[in-house]
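Quick illustration, no need to memorize.
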Amino acid sequence: MEVNLSSSLTDAPDVEIADVEKVLSQFWNSPQGKEHVRAGLFNLIVYTEGEKGLEKVSELTQNIIAAFPCRIIFINQDLSPEKNYLKVTASTIPGEQGFGNTLIYCDQIHISASQKHQERIIFLLLPHLVPDLPTYLLWAALPDEKSHTFNSLCKYSERLIVQSTCISNFEHFSKKMLALMQHLDIPCIDITWAQLAKWRDIFSKIFGSKDNYVNLRTAKEIKITFSVQPDHRGSSEVPALYFLSWLSCQMNWEVDFALKTEENIKMTFLPGKGPLSCVFTPEFKASEPSGALLSLEIFTESGWTFQFQAFDKKGKVIAHISSDNVCELPLSLPLSHAQKGQFFFKELLFSCDDACLESALQFLSRIEWQGKEMHE
């Protein structure tokens, strides 16, 4: 059951801060509330900035609620120094379908505050965290270790979730995230990184065989195509960069040259046995979200070609493996939904090992980009 989170929060009336739990209890004590099931597996704090901040995470939070009912607390901060307000709303939202006609409902609380009230946010939030349940923090903005709100929320969270595709300057984001991960005491995961979990699993299976791995060691050219949308604000190339950084860390490749232009991204590696070039090419595809990996091709010195074509709507990747003398039968491999699949949620909510992400960020931070577009 799909619900527009933005509308449900907007339509909910403002309540007195002290009456939040009372308003929620009124629903559950009503005849309508008694027909449904109240559930919560964890507390989810969602931090956004600006008027359109909630729109950036609406689909993701809706998918999380549908799969894992939770108490969700939205915090929207207005960074305009001239504004002065603090508002709170409380309501319920249906999650997944229960037995028969029963719906599982979740509590949601929305705190909207101007910058002048940022130090009060943590004190408003703490009484509404359900005890004995883990608390996850989804930070849909550029993390700032100097922010009082960020530091105070991290203290009460077991996991930090960030969204890199909302950030226009990914180079700056990767270096900032790397610095944060080195002093944070909680696991940190990027939503974009989690969305690539199934792609990493597919690659691990294909190149898990000794022959394919040996051929990959002689790679001379890699071509990656990713989807772009005209109205997308952010860095569409982030998933492709993340994937290649993960692969490079596994293969001990280092970037020798990197150039970003409006047409594509080009990299040259020195893998140890000869030069390796990689080209990232954006392609408009209306059926795919911005940043989705569309295809990947690897050409090797030993004459082998590995081609991967994604069909996200059909939930699969077609892999073609061939050489000058051999053409293997195409492999159809399942590709779970980027924001709904089992691999995505496992990586996003439950994985405690962020070492691979940290290694990928370290790899990206060492790249010396050429071309002014990367720094804009």
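The chain has a mean pLDDT of 85.
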